[in-house]
Amino acid sequence: MMNNHDFEYFDPLDPNQYKAGKIRGPVKQWNVKGRLRVGYHSSINGRLKTRGAVKIGKYCAIGDDVRLIAVSHDPQTINLQIWLQSEIGSKKGGTSRGPIIIGNNVWIGDLVCVMSGVTVGNGAILAAGAVVTKDVEPYSIVAGVPAKHIRYRFSESVRHQLEAIKWWNWDDERIKRNIAFFDCVLEPDRDIRLESLVSG
User: What is the pLDDT of the chain when averaged over all its residues?
Assistant: First the structure.
């Protein structure tokens, strides 16, 4: 029997892996072309369009009408239509700067578009309607077209602690035991020793 430790990422289009990964979302509303892999307990709350290689980490919250486009039209070819290039047997199809990699516990708002080659760090927030063309640092909030850094969610010390704790790798029972940790509300400039809230 498959469990959540069998794969770092799951294929959400495979019903068995979707269930094993405890992934949530309306699969029938997802338009996937290429390789999509999703981490444990992530939620995709509406329409999703992916092209090319896309990885989404654990415990992510993804809004409606999100586009993760790791392959796009090549402006340097005479024909811009990828379908025609494929139909005639051309080796020149779409162009890509690399896969899209979304970290763990990332919140992606409605109508966000992430372009090829982008890596989004753990705990980042992509505000609704953002077009993300560059890497996003962990725990950063970005917004706009093109997306720009607005601020960090937490102090530098807290960000480093969270990256070391890696709570998204805890098993379900440990997460349930750590209510105090998850109930902690932090202002961006507040420092705290997070280990004091963590139980084994």
Answer: 91
